[in-house]
Design brief:
Helices cover 14% and strands 55% of the residues. The chain is mainly β. An 8-stranded antiparallel barrel has the order 9-10-11-12-13-14-15-16.
Length: 292
């Protein structure tokens, strides 16, 4: 009898602890901040978040809609929208004094899954974030909502892994890989030339995250018209994100406006970068392009 009483008492203490922890999560955990940090490499570092239709679940919350608005381009870019947002947390993770959260949402014909592990209730720690993007239709994204993929159509899959102090997201570290299929790179226009459109079968972008600096270690574009390979950096500053990308190209189709082989450089602010194409022929000439 005494053993049964001890077991019941211990079970009651555990259940009470889980209830109190759940209440603390509901009242105080910054879901919006955590999701903003998880998505900042995709939608930009200065982004406001709004959730609509929020309701409580047994072990989490749900929202009918979540909007992320890039603060630096509120007059130009529409909000980045997630629907059917489901956020849940694992009560067993509390036994280690930290919280593990998973979320899933629908996003432009595709899905987004995000897990955040190792969130401390007290003290400093570096939670691990894993973000997966699957089959996102870039053509349906609002203009400018995704700075990385401005003026690009196609289907996007991607993975971002990073370790991020919640109090200092600017010191995050990690890696990423984006895989785009079946679209076009649009809105490149040169002086005295028609608009340049680059159709592609696949674009693979890989790199590393080191604080405000993103090292793009590899960009590979394959298509029937042209082959492009490059690398570079994107760095967040007080004035926005500065980009420095250098790539080589080889035209594969006689119908493609660029001929032979050459180089492409992209520099300046990511919102309106300077793009320069230099042909590799005997009479090499630079052609300055602008992105609309």
């Amino acid at each position: 009898m005494d053993r049964q009483k001890s077991i019941l008492f211990f079970s009651g203490v555990v259940l009470w602890g889980v209830f109190v922890a759940a209440l603390m999560v509901y009242l105080f955990f910054p879901y919006q901040k955590a999701l903003r940090i998880a998505l900042q490499n995709v939608v930009g570092s200065r982004t406001s978040v709004a959730m609509e239709g929020v309701s409580m679940k047994t072990m989490g919350i749900a929202a009918s809609r979540l909007l992320l608005q890039p603060a630096a381009s509120t007059d130009q870019a529409g909000p980045f929208e997630l629907t059917h947002v489901d956020i849940s947390w694992n009560p067993l993770s509390l036994l280690g004094g930290k919280l593990a959260i998973k979320s899933k949402a629908s996003i432009y014909d595709g899905t987004m899954q995000c897990s955040i592990d190792g969130i401390p209730f007290t003290g400093a720690a570096n939670p691990n974030i894993l973000l997966r993007l699957e089959r996102i239709n870039l053509g349906k994204c609002p203009e400018g909502a995704l700075p990385w993929f401005k003026d690009i159509s196609g289907s996007l899959d991607g993975v971002i892994k990073k370790e991020t102090p919640l109090a200092r997201p600017d010191t995050q570290t990690g890696s990423f890989r984006f895989d785009l299929k079946g679209g076009e790179v649009k809105e490149l226009q040169a002086r005295n030339m028609p608009r340049l459109v680059i159709p592609y079968k696949r674009i693979v972008i890989e790199g590393k995250i080191d604080g405000p600096r993103i090292d793009v270690t590899s960009i590979v574009l394959t298509s029937d018209a042209v082959s492009i390979k490059g690398s570079g950096t994107i760095e967040t500053t007080d004035t926005g994100q500065n980009v420095d990308i250098r790539a080589s190209y080889e035209a594969l189709s006689k119908a493609f406006p660029l001929k032979g082989k050459g180089t492409i450089t992209i520099s300046g602010n990511q919102a309106s970068p300077n793009v320069v194409v230099i042909s590799g022929g005997p009479q090499a000439a630079g052609v300055a392009l602008r992105m609309r």
